[in-house]
Fold this sequence. Notes:
This protein is α+β, with helices and mostly antiparallel strands. 53% of the residues lie in helices and 8% in strands. The chain is built from 10 helices and 4 strands, in the order ααααααααβαβαββ.
Amino acid sequence: MKALSRLVAAGALLGLAGCGMIGDTLHIQGFLNGGAPAGTDFNMCLAREYYFLTDSESKLGGLDGDYFHATRFMRKSRAASAGEEVSPWMASDWNVLESETEELNAARERLTAALAAGKGERPCDCARAQAHYDAWLEQEHDNDLGVIKGEYFKGPVQPDNVAAERFKFNRWVARCEGVAAEAKDFIVYFGYNKSNLTGEAMEVINEVANFVTGLANPSVTVVGHADTSGSQAYNQKLSERRAAAVARALSEKGVTNVTTAGKGEMEPAVPTGDGVREPLNRRATIQISQ
């Protein structure tokens, strides 16, 4: 009952305990137990991306998670699976800071145009763009909650969470628009203190496997990285585990001649001070040469 009591208390504080919301939160685990939706058309790709976001929100910090936000993603996943038209949220659908609204609205306009032009030919790329836009918007909402102090709130979400979703949105909306990715460089991202591969990470693995198929004798180098949270010695080992996990997945896809290395917290994508949890630094880079 501890999880439920936290759930009800948080909902009361936020004013989110409206019709059906609490009831839906109780179905999240059953929804997740059903597994990620499968399929390659836009709606099924979108349902799968929202499934991953539901899973992520329900496990925040390894605790009970943010069930109300997970529920909103779950509803979108279910609707897309049912073949309904699911549009990206608007900034006005969430409590975002006024200073962020202009950028979010401009990004949504770009996304809407990209979806209209590209979701037929590039359904999964466009689905990822929409999902990461909504995740970016949700993170901006979390920042707005930072003025509230108490047991059920963690204070302002670190700006790096917003930056990570903005980065992913820009990456995938460009793909949706038909802009080619960097031909020989790929990046896999990891959760905090994790070396397992997420569904999104496996999509990158598949991209790499498809890319090297057309190359003669390719050489693949995987370099793991960590953020600065934790000791340097621990982060070195963590980066090596991340590189090894990517290499194993590539091997299972038939990719050979793979070498690995770990850089620990050295060579960060985003320079930070010590002890900073930076999502963009929790990564493994995959470089391909001939």
